[in-house]
């Protein structure tokens, strides 16, 4: 019996429903170990296929999706033809409801979305797509060890050609802010605190507003290539932008907002979209 491993094979960028935190964006890194008999080439599995095929299976399963803990009593799921609706009752009051094409919402037989809960489900999914000589898959799912400020956000990009168009997917993102050419950990902590578990929305996507149990909710919706997407969420969990919410526009918006508040000098904001990628925004008052 032999084994091969690949560290940081890929990342999974997604959002999930949590009764306490609400709609939470997350990024997990993925390590993988394959154990089995050697094939005719003297390999358990070709490294080139590991990087391509396994990454594709992971992406199609959970990447850029809304993960829903089906076994939690605060969650309900309903499928109708090619659409799925997930609803979460929040402990703080109010609701989060997402309606989207089936692949955009992934219900899982767990009571909470954690690496420990998702790992065996993903291992089983991957093993089914591998050659018979591969007898087991072991995966390690974990967030990046970020030294400094970061925040969790969810969003949707209706103009995107790929899975980023899904209205409720997200990321765990580091942020660095430089004011007057000096790094400001105070500003970083301020922004990350305000944007923890935030939904970043485009103002023009608002399709409704109503009070539910005394809590103001906003509804967002748009038609994209994959279908119709809608999301209802308490207004206090949203941050509205006048533009789309690409990482480039997020960085530019933060830089200009901070520069306007300071009323003098230049500001540079470096914000990640998940792991080892992101954008830089530069602005001055």
Q: Report how far the terminal alpha carbons are from each other.
A: 64 Å
Helix content: 10-25%
Strands, count: 18
CATH superfamily: 6-pyruvoyl tetrahydropterin synthase/QueD
Rg, alpha carbons:
20 Å
Shape: globular
Low-pLDDT stretches: none
Query: At the third CATH level, what is the topology name?
Result: Tetrahydropterin Synthase, Chain A
Largest sheet properties: 7 strands, mixed
| Number of spatially distinct domains | 1
Quick structural overview:
The protein is α+β, with helices and mostly antiparallel strands and 285 residues long.
Structure description:
The protein has one domain (2-171, 201-240): Tetrahydropterin Synthase, Chain A (2-Layer Sandwich). The protein is an alpha+beta fold. The termini are far apart. The radius of gyration is 20 Å and the shape is globular. The mean pLDDT is 96. The protein contains four helices and 18 strands. Strands 9, 10, 11, 12, 16, 17 and 18 form a seven-stranded mixed sheet that branches. Strands 4-5-6-15-14-13 form a six-stranded antiparallel sheet, with no helix packed on it. A five-stranded mixed sheet has the order 7-3-1-2-8.
Summarize the helices and strands and which ones pair or pack.
Blueprint: E1 2-18, E2 22-36, H1 47-61, E3 66-69, E4 75-80, E5 83-89, E6 95-101, E7 105-108, H2 115-127, E8 134-142, E9 150-155, E10 169-179, E11 182-183, H3 185-194, E12 198-202, E13 206-212, E14 215-224, E15 227-234, E16 238-241, H4 247-262, E17 266-272, E18 278-284
Parallel strand pairs: 1-3, 3-7, 9-12, 12-16
Antiparallel strand pairs: 1-2, 2-8, 4-5, 5-6, 6-15, 9-10, 10-11, 10-17, 13-14, 14-15, 17-18
